Amino acid sequence: MIKLAIIGTGNVAFHLAQAFHLAEKVHLEAVAGRSRESLEAFKEFAPVFTHSDKIPEVDVLVLAVSDTAIKTVSAKLKDNDALIVHTSGSTSVDALSDHKRYGVFYPLQTFSKSSNLNYSNIPFCIEAKLESDFQLLEDLASALMAKSFQVYSDQRAALHLAAVFANNFGNHILTEARQICEERDVSFELLKPLMQETIRKAFDIGPQAAQTGPAKRRDTSTIEKQLNALHSDQQKELYTSLTKAILAHYER
């Protein structure tokens, strides 16, 4: 049985606490956060603490906090003998190098408290200073029925950057698409089959081969017509920037 504690009360902390609470080979000993209010939702999973120094002895201590808080929280745990890991995609493992045992336990997924996640579909990017601790992180991912991959800090940073393009930027584009639909009284749901097929093709044949549309075809007439149909300068700027990027890419 792996004894584990979590510091943090955000979306990642919530989902991990929920999952580890249900995992047969893990015992969630505690969750720590800055305020009692933020910890209220965690009481059904484990004992909660407002100070990290009250956390009982554990095998693994997960820092599910913001990137800017990792160093600060880590500094308060200098006398802790547990394997201390953070869950950040863009922060180097060296941010925890003041500890004897440290690593990274990064789930490559978007987290919202209202979502139900299937951990067998979530890749965990793991890294550890000691080989024995790497094995411990593999066991931790396995306890969630998840797959784990050894990914070093520079590789993980590249994955996180790619995820920002694919997920965050992609989601913003969908936000603009929904606004266009709502302005014209058209159902946004009509785009769902298109997006599902787009994602399928991107991973089956590669996004470059799957690219279609007026920019790929160099259909300047349609591009001009669609630009004129956009109501906001922000949407026009986004459309123009992405169109130029696609045109430039296929000139290579």
In summary, what is this structure?
The protein is of the alpha/beta class and about 250 residues long. It has helices at about 10-20, 35-40, 70-75, 130-145, 155-185, 190-205, 205-210, 215, 220-230, 235-250, and strands at about 1-5, 25-30, 50, 60-65, 85, 100-105, 125-130, 145-150. The protein has two domains: about 1-150, NAD(P)-binding Rossmann-like Domain (Rossmann fold, 3-Layer(aba) Sandwich), CATH 3.40.50.720; about 155-250, N-(1-d-carboxylethyl)-l-norvaline Dehydrogenase, domain 2, CATH 1.10.1040.20.
What can you see in these coordinates?
Residues 3-85 form the Pyrroline-5-carboxylate reductase catalytic N-terminal domain. This is DUF2520 domain-containing protein. Residues 122-245 form the DUF2520 domain. The protein has 252 residues and is an alpha/beta fold. It has two domains: 2-151, NAD(P)-binding Rossmann-like Domain (Rossmann fold, 3-Layer(aba) Sandwich), CATH 3.40.50; 156-249, N-(1-d-carboxylethyl)-l-norvaline Dehydrogenase, domain 2 (Orthogonal Bundle). 45% of the residues lie in helices and 15% in strands. It contains ten helices and eight strands. The chain has an eight-stranded mixed sheet with strand order 3-2-1-4-5-6-7-8. The longest helix is centred in the middle third of the chain and has 31 residues, at 153-183. The chain is elongated and about 65 Å long. The termini are far apart. The model has no long low-confidence stretch (mean pLDDT 94).
